[in-house]
Design goal:
globular; 14 helices; GI Alpha 1, domain 2-like; alpha/beta; eight-stranded parallel barrel; TIM Barrel; two-stranded antiparallel sheet; 2 domains
Length: about 425
């Protein structure tokens, strides 16, 4: 394949609704489903890891950058996916994982991490130094953010083939307490003049250091634990004006999860050639898993297995959700299991969760699952997608649910899925 990212940017800048999805997840089933779908559609895909997920210390997944590349390449082999269609990206690479340390110590670790990402084979590098370290404000201004990002880019360039790297800069971190709406109920987008100032500062600092290909800005899409802020169909905040003077650069949107399907080509026409998705895919996988879990009592095969196990696990170790969810005990239970922030995704690697999932799938894989029973839990598009996925039907249904959530990102350049 050609240089996938630069080719996508060029088509977008030429006026086509061109975009590539960036799947940000370390969940094996989510990644396998994404790779299978990209292969079936003959489309490229970006697979991303975040600095908290994957770093030289293992992150919360226990994987180093090289481990993650090997993990995904193993899934590519298992799913028959052409490795040439996969681009590896690093997301929010900076001092975030160590921000409780003084800036000098946190940045020293960030330099090692970025170099490790590049040495492992990551080429789409999102550098984000916007969050303050110990003794600093929570969010830093462009002056400090840009200087630190450019320093990280120098470390990245020394670690591998500098010409192969494409940097993404900027961030769209919501304000403390979550995203806020304007007087019309919309999520305020980044102001074009602010986006241009951020880009210009980075371009000056990166001159002679590396190539910037993407600028992260807020187009007006967001989700809270229990609500999706959808992109208005008739709204364009004019953010493409921030990059008109910079050929070879596109806009990148984070938090695009859960949008209506027509939002993605609309974003592409607004200049967003890089579109990130993550929690919506693990949410879809969990939703399908709970649907399978709910078939047991319906069919008289026993009680649910997974949901009670996950409730015990999350109650016993609340660190990944407490502080993110707020409300009554009933509200908190609901958000733990079906919240759109999908904080439950941090618990799936735990042995207790793995054991419960395995018990459910082993039980259902040994049973006949009549179509009328499956109709109680799965829409027809998911059942149809599962037909093309090899293996036991329950496992195929999990991956099919992920594919159904990801499919709208693979629209054609005329805007059709």
């Amino acid at each position: 394949m050609p240089d996938i990212l630069r080719d996508t940017i060029a088509r977008n800048r030429a006026g086509r609704a061109a975009a590539i999805p960036s799947v940000c997840s370390a969940h094996a089933d989510v990644l396998a489903a994404s790779l299978r779908l990209a292969q079936r559609l003959d489309r490229p895909v970006v697979i991303e890891a975040t600095s908290n997920q994957v770093n030289q210390e293992g992150g919360y997944t226990g994987m180093t950058p090289a481990d993650f590349i090997g993990f995904v390449q193993g899934l590519a082999a298992d799913t028959g996916t052409d490795r040439a269609r996969i681009v590896f990206g690093g997301d929010h690479l900076g001092p975030q994982a160590w921000r409780r340390l003084p800036a000098e110590a946190a940045m020293a670790r960030a330099h090692v991490m970025v170099a490790d990402y590049v040495a492992a084979g990551f080429t789409k590098i999102h550098l984000d130094c916007s969050e303050g370290c110990a003794g600093e404000p929570a969010q830093l201004g462009d002056a400090v953010t840009v200087a630190r990002s450019a320093d990280l880019a120098r470390s990245a360039a020394r670690a591998g083939d500098a010409a192969a790297l494409l940097y993404v800069v900027g961030t769209e971190v919501p304000p403390p307490g979550g995203a806020r709406t304007d007087a019309h109920g919309f999520i305020p987008s980044t102001r074009p003049e602010a986006a241009r100032a951020t880009l210009d500062a980075h371009l000056a600092a990166f001159d002679g250091v590396g190539e910037i290909g993407g600028l992260v800005v807020q187009p007006g899409v967001e989700f809270t634990p229990m609500h999706v802020h959808h992109l208005p169909r008739d709204r364009d905040p004019g953010l493409a004006a921030a990059i008109t003077h910079a050929p070879g650069i596109c806009l990148e949107a984070h938090s695009t999860d859960y949008q209506h399907p027509d939002a993605y080509p609309h974003l592409a026409r607004m200049g967003f050639a890089f579109q990130k998705v993550g929690p919506a895919l693990t949410f879809a996988w969990r939703q399908a898993l709970y649907a399978l879990d709910g078939l047991r009592p319906v069919a008289g095969w026993g009680e649910a297995v997974v949901l009670p196990a996950m409730e015990r696990l999350m109650q016993g170790d609340p660190g990944f959700w407490a502080g993110h969810y707020h409300g009554t005990p009933e509200d908190l239970r609901l958000m733990r299991h079906v919240g759109l922030a999908d904080r439950i995704r941090y618990y799936w690697p735990r042995p207790e969760a793995q054991s419960a999932v395995r018990a459910l799938l082993d039980d259902l894989s040994g049973r006949i699952l009549p179509e009328p029973l499956l109709w109680q839990a799965f829409p027809e598009p998911v059942l149809a997608l599962a037909e093309a996925i090899p293996g036991p039907r329950p496992a195929a249904l999990l991956q099919a649910a992920v594919q159904a959530a990801l499919l709208p990102y693979f629209f054609d350049e005329d805007g059709d899925a």
